[in-house]
Write a structure and sequence with these properties.
alpha/beta, 7 helices, Rossmann fold, binds 5-O-phosphono-beta-D-ribofuranosylamine, 7-stranded mixed sheet
Length: about 210
């Protein structure tokens, strides 16, 4: 049985979408894959209760108990590796990961980001898309590389050396007249909940 480990920090709605899809589509029987653990770096993450109610094993590793990013990531790796995961799925996990962590899970580490990467890597994606006058917005599921949200820092002339963003799937929504950050975020999030399970299902089907 292949194990999936999901990392969250907050609401966990993407985790819920993954879990409900896995259940509805019988991933353990049909794809030989199950969600082995939901791990949060925040003890108060609402997603923990949601995961518990969905019957998923939950764990908390509070980053505030660690002196450095490296120390936290090392402890997190131990927790994750105890499940020998085939895939580690970041679902609203609000931590910048160390290069060692990312290298350790190379080819197994997937993230969802609420923009059409490589546009708007980082925070406040919807605010920035609205400010830029974009007519479409969306979300991206991608392999995690050492750059934030899979996008290398833009150094002049460096584009040919930049790592590819490793895009696995994207969904596009319109920006509508009168949109604010919240209405746009809600429209994108509804697509995230469809995109992330679809991409993970495809990855699992490709390698089973
Ligand atoms: C989502 O928009 C996700 O793309 C971003 O953070 C948000 C998490 O939402 N990385 P949730 O915790 O899955 O509800």
């Amino acid at each position: 049985m292949r194990h999936l480990v999901i990392l969250i920090s907050g609401h966990g709605s993407n985790m819920e979408a993954l879990a409900r899809t896995a259940q509805r589509e019988a991933w353990p029987e049909r794809l030989n894959a199950r969600i082995a653990a939901v791990i949060s770096n925040r003890p108060d993450a609402a997603g923990l209760k949601l995961a518990h109610d969905l019957g998923l094993p939950t764990e908390v590793l509070d980053h505030r108990g660690f002196a450095s990013r490296e120390a936290f990531d090392a402890a997190l790796m131990q927790r994750i590796d105890a499940h020998a995961p085939a895939l580690v799925l970041l679902a609203g996990f609000m931590r910048i990961l160390t290069p060692g962590f990312v290298r350790h899970y190379a080819g197994r580490l997937v993230n969802i980001h609420p923009s059409l990467l490589p546009a708007f890597a980082g925070l406040h994606t919807h605010r920035r898309a609205l400010a830029a006058g974009c007519q479409v917005a969306g979300c991206t599921v991608h392999w995690v590389s050492e750059a934030v949200d899979g996008v290398e820092a833009a150094a002049p002339g460096a584009s040919e050396r930049a790592a590819p963003p490793g895009i696995l799937g994207q969904a596009v929504v319109p920006v509508l007249p009168g949109d604010d950050e919240q209405t746009l975020a809600d429209r994108v999030l509804a697509q995230e909940h469809l995109l992330y399970p679809r991409v993970v299902r495809e990855l699992l089907a490709r390698t089973s």
